[in-house]
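Re: iron/sulfur cluster structure - here you go.
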Amino acid sequence: MALAVTSSSTAISGTSFSRLGSSIDPKAPQIRSLRLSDRTHVAASSVVHMSQRRSSLKRSESVVPRAATISASPEVEEKVAVEDFGQLAKELNNASPLEIMDKALEKFGNDIAIAFSGAEDVALIEYARLTGRPFRVFSLDTGRLNPETYRFFDAVEKHYGIRIEYMFPDAVEVQGLVRSKGLFSFYEDGHQECCRVRKVRPLRRALKGLRAWITGQRKDQSPGTRSEIPVVQVDPVFEGMDGGIGSLVKWNPVANVDGGDVWNFLRTMDVPVNSLHAQGYVSIGCEPCTRAVLPGQHEREGRWWWEDAKAKECGLHKGNIKENVNGDSGDNHGKSPVVEDIFESKNLVTLSRAGIENLMKLENRKEPWIVVLYAPWCPFCQAMEESYVELAEKLAGKGVKVAKFRADGDQKEFAKKELQLGSFPTILLFPKSASKPIKYPSEKRDVDALTSFVNLLR
Ligand code: SF4
């Protein structure tokens, strides 16, 4: 299997890493073909045995002009190094994004690239520039981005004097999807299939030409699904150029930075930003699947808003979804393991199956009820435990009952059929004078948001 780009290739194919520069400037130098067989095979768990190859590429051979100064030795030097990235993540946990970026670029040279989404992760490019090291940037052009995002890509290329290495979806796959299901099938049967074709597979191809990548993932972007991101890790999902598990390293230099600080940094450094941000967009993806959010709404509420929170990863970063104690991501295959119960409070009513069935039957209740359908092993339920217990305290004696119903295991089918359970946790409000419960539609599960929901609909 050859490294993505050959000296004669400018086309995009199942194994090629696109080189926009070559079509713009026919004199632009090309990356040479390198063969996988040149490399030591990699195996990995948390400790990765890496084939540390000093790239034979000089920076002047890259299509990325600013990257044309990579200081790699002209000789190909093979040496096997053992790197414990779990340990490195601990060591770098309190390091600044700049230090982490510098370490990543230093370690991987021309075999690492920044994944740029066209949003505030432009901060990564700025950090890379500040290191003074050469760097590469790639992006996924799904064909469904906003015009503003394309203009932003252009502005970033000009500002930094770089060429972004765009990856495009396979035309035949897109054609098959659109011809069979239409242009907006994701609104009907979920975004996964379209994302797989337009994002995940192109990303997979891009990563097969690298040994490491750099993402703009942050813990605060999605408290449910991104709370466990280390600053560096062996990629749990994708493979790098050496193939196999452990052949790719993922760097997340801003994992511990909050969104506000990223924006302070962008403003201070006077970095170009996507004009959609000025229209209320925070997290930016494809045009049909991204919308502006209101003040106070979580940024991920602007993405795939018609779906449950747990499904809101496009597949690019699935490996960072926090796993429960049994090693799955929430479904638990119908089993009810013995784990400590959660939502323990004297102010909370524990509903049995009969109890919640009675609640459903009542047309006129004496008081409204808010009920969480939960599974104690579910990390998303665990994450909201504190705020829900606080809500119960706050509403105690105020004419609203706060309750919980364990809906995994044997109760799961019933809860799915009768109680709108999509994923854990599902929160329902049973108003005083309506038999049908109202499902809480947001990922924001803090006390204030839940209180507003109760007070507006009770
Ligand atoms: Fe398709 Fe939407 Fe995913 Fe873009 S974000 S690839 S349009 S489903």
